[in-house]
Amino acid sequence: MGAAQQIAYFLLHPNELRSIAQWKVWHEPVHRRDASKETPTEKSCFHFLKLTSRSFSAVIQELNPELLMPICLFYLVLRGLDTIEDDMTLDIKEKEPLLRDFHNIMEQDGWTFDKNGPNEKDRELLVHFDDIIFELKKVKKPYYDIIKDITEKMGNGMADYALNAEHNNIGVGTIKEYELYCHYVAGLVGEGLTRLFVESNLANPQLLVRMDLTESMGQFLQKVNIIRDVHEDWIDKRRFWPREIWSKYVDNWDDLFAPANREKALQCSSEMVLNALKHAEECLFYMAGIRDQSVFNFVAIPQSMAIATLDLVFRNPAIFERNVKITKGDACQLMIESTQNLRVVCDVFKKYARRIHKKNDPRDPNFLAISAQCGKIEQFIETIFPTQDPNKVRAGLKQEDPKMDALETFYLIAAALSTFILIGVLMIGIAWYFGARFDQVFKNIDQKIAGTVTSSVAAVTSVAHEEL
Amino acid sequence: MASEKKPSLGSAMVIGGCGFLGHHVVRLLLRDYTTTSISVIDLRCTRNRRPESDGVKYYEADITDADKLISVFSEARPDVVIHTASPPAQSNDSVSHALFKKVNVDGTAAVIKACQTTGVKALVYTSSASVMSDNKSDLINADERWPTVRGENQTEYYSETKAAAEELVLLANRASPAPSLLTCAIRPSGIMGEGDTMVLYHMINIYRQGRTGVQVGDNNNLFDFTYVENVAHGHLLAARALLLTSSSSTVPLDHERVDGEAFLVTNDSPVYFWDFCRAIWAAAGSPMGTDHVRVLPRGVGMVLGFLSECFFAMIGKPPTFNRQRIVYSCMTRYYDISKAKKRLGYRPLVSLDEGVRRSVKWTLEQEKVNAEKK
């Protein structure tokens, strides 16, 4: 957006500018990273964090100092893994061992990698990976073990996908495969983060028992990105929407992007949104288990962004034409709301669920299922923050004043009668104004009646005459 | 489920078994359970009959005739009784009031007496979620802890009689003169499905008359509708739980007991009220989206409803459109069915989405069949 366009945009949307100002000026981090006390390798790590993650780096840097560096490194290690996996210029024979052994490679002092293609945007991270390895050595063992374990699982998962010719040529087949893919690229990240939170005592240990909640956190984010990025992925000849879903609407994947099939494409994207929405309750449940404010902020911000993005992509034809994303003002508003407490985040989810519901179309085959899923989100929020208390409801029954009903009825009748009278008076007034001659009415009636009687008599006489 | 052994319910009787809900209970009994015999009592047994090969025995009887009931029970010797009989809740005049009292309260008292006299082990009564509603306040994720609304607070006499009958049933649990009789009540909300002459019938009529373009309220109110097969399923799970309790020598703990309890049963999928209407219209063939819809605020709807009541009062007919319907379409009314999930193991068998499709399809086919007969 050019500067002039931007100014024009904000003039037309003053609320958005206000949200941005509010976030920039008034947001007070729970914790703030102190760069002046950092070693050169630590600085290097945060430099790469900013470089590779515009959205996450800010919230990571506000984390509790106990987890700040472990999570920063965790992020960078996984980004390194992803950079290798994503690089189409690397031969699979070289790529596979790197992915599968990355959890050991990251223990080799001084290891770096400079064979990424020149266009791979995060290649610099791997060129200087020795800094990350250096800092990993300083992480407390329990945290390190978690990072290593997830790196191993993720590397193996990525390698499996890289080797899967069918996946690369045909894309994701079933919904089950789709969710397995999301598990490897995002669910595992959630698992690692959760274990770090619990290990550091910043989250409820029950989150380790309810791994389904953790899984939903990752799945939700990843699915939203896959839905939003559909056009971009199509251009790059990647596809992540499961054939099990899109084949109900079009015969070939490319047909989804033809303007003539736009309504079919929208219905297909609705089913994708429905599939993602089912995770929303579990995400809220997960966030209820977080104890530390900075960790809460860290997990709540992306989830709020995700539900807002889901509203943006729902029944939005633009997703098949270009990249779409939420506006900067909305993003700042979401960040303000996500750094308060669970109740405010629940209100965000409810607001966006209702916006999705409002755009729902009865002609969509998933219309009622989407409505029910939005209803489930509201219902789940009611179980955490009930609006009604059965004891108050019981007390309310006894105290009810029956006269109120009678009074309301009286007012209603009075209003109706007043309306009738008013309209009647207006009608007569207008008629008089336009020259109605009310004084002639009775004369006319008399004359007409007389005329009728005369005619009747004549008829009778005539009949009598014929008989004679 | 074919490989699974079907649970046994002994000798089962369905009162009101030719009715809307009752005939689905009979169908599920045959499909999902084994029994030594199945009996049906209804006022008239000409509708919704099973084929002879199913071996269901039909008795015509008026449940308000206690002696007749006892004689039928003595012949059929049921272990389990599922009492679904009730007049439809449509009208609200003195004739209907008398009928509600007679069938719902006196009839249920007669059923209880017959159960106690003939050694029935389990009685499941079809109550209604409406016993918790005063027909004007919202019910937001209400569960069984919410009070029943009785007396002058209850504006629908139908609900008053259902609550009175439910109370009789629950008080009869483990009570003298038959301490071995176990009872419970199922409170369904907004039942719809094949054989539905209320919810679905009216919705499809609105579509036929081209009146789908009006919405009252902002459509952010959630409502619980329940597909009839799920309600029948809830009843049979309750019956089975009561029989298991009956054959057990120990009394169950409070948090797991089923006898003497009421259970809310829904599709566990509250939906926005007007979305449900639109889903039915779409299933009935409507090509419309929501572009043609005009939204009336609730207040305007109330005034129009009142005027409609005045007009119909003048011409001496019951109003087709009144204030209470405006209230219903703007009201939030959905339920938390955790108790039925935990204690009965209830889960909806059929989603609401699928339930709407099946029901509308069946209703349209029935109309076609009826048209051919003329």
Automatic annotation (TrEMBL), chain A:
<dbReference type="InterPro" id="IPR002060">
    <property type="entry name" value="Squ/phyt_synthse"/>
</dbReference>
<keyword id="KW-0812">Transmembrane</keyword>
<dbReference type="Pfam" id="PF00494">
    <property type="entry name" value="SQS_PSY"/>
</dbReference>
<dbReference type="GO" id="GO:0006696">
    <property type="term" value="P:ergosterol biosynthetic process"/>
</dbReference>
<dbReference type="InterPro" id="IPR008949">
    <property type="entry name" value="Isoprenoid_synthase_dom_sf"/>
</dbReference>
<comment type="function">
    <text>Catalyzes the condensation of 2 farnesyl pyrophosphate (FPP) moieties to form squalene.</text>
</comment>
<dbReference type="InterPro" id="IPR044844">
    <property type="entry name" value="Trans_IPPS_euk-type"/>
</dbReference>
<dbReference type="GO" id="GO:0055056">
    <property type="term" value="F:D-glucose transmembrane transporter activity"/>
</dbReference>
<keyword id="KW-0752">Steroid biosynthesis</keyword>
<dbReference type="InterPro" id="IPR006449">
    <property type="entry name" value="Squal_synth-like"/>
</dbReference>
<keyword id="KW-0753">Steroid metabolism</keyword>
<keyword id="KW-0808">Transferase</keyword>
<dbReference type="GO" id="GO:0051996">
    <property type="term" value="F:squalene synthase [NAD(P)H] activity"/>
</dbReference>
<keyword id="KW-0443">Lipid metabolism</keyword>
<feature type="transmembrane region" description="Helical">
    <location>
        <begin position="410"/>
        <end position="434"/>
    </location>
</feature>
<dbReference type="GO" id="GO:0005789">
    <property type="term" value="C:endoplasmic reticulum membrane"/>
</dbReference>
<dbReference type="InterPro" id="IPR033904">
    <property type="entry name" value="Trans_IPPS_HH"/>
</dbReference>
<dbReference type="InterPro" id="IPR019845">
    <property type="entry name" value="Squalene/phytoene_synthase_CS"/>
</dbReference>
<dbReference type="GO" id="GO:0045338">
    <property type="term" value="P:farnesyl diphosphate metabolic process"/>
</dbReference>
<keyword id="KW-1133">Transmembrane helix</keyword>
<keyword id="KW-0472">Membrane</keyword>
<keyword id="KW-1207">Sterol metabolism</keyword>
UniProtKB/TrEMBL annotation, chain B:
<dbReference type="Pfam" id="PF01073">
    <property type="entry name" value="3Beta_HSD"/>
</dbReference>
<feature type="domain" description="3-beta hydroxysteroid dehydrogenase/isomerase">
    <location>
        <begin position="13"/>
        <end position="288"/>
    </location>
</feature>
<dbReference type="InterPro" id="IPR050177">
    <property type="entry name" value="Lipid_A_modif_metabolic_enz"/>
</dbReference>
<dbReference type="InterPro" id="IPR002225">
    <property type="entry name" value="3Beta_OHSteriod_DH/Estase"/>
</dbReference>
<keyword id="KW-0560">Oxidoreductase</keyword>
<dbReference type="GO" id="GO:0000252">
    <property type="term" value="F:3-beta-hydroxysteroid dehydrogenase [NAD(P)+]/C4-decarboxylase activity"/>
</dbReference>
<protein>
    <submittedName>
        <fullName>Erg26, C-3 sterol dehydrogenase</fullName>
        <ecNumber>1.1.1.170</ecNumber>
    </submittedName>
</protein>
<comment type="similarity">
    <text>Belongs to the 3-beta-HSD family.</text>
</comment>
<dbReference type="InterPro" id="IPR036291">
    <property type="entry name" value="NAD(P)-bd_dom_sf"/>
</dbReference>
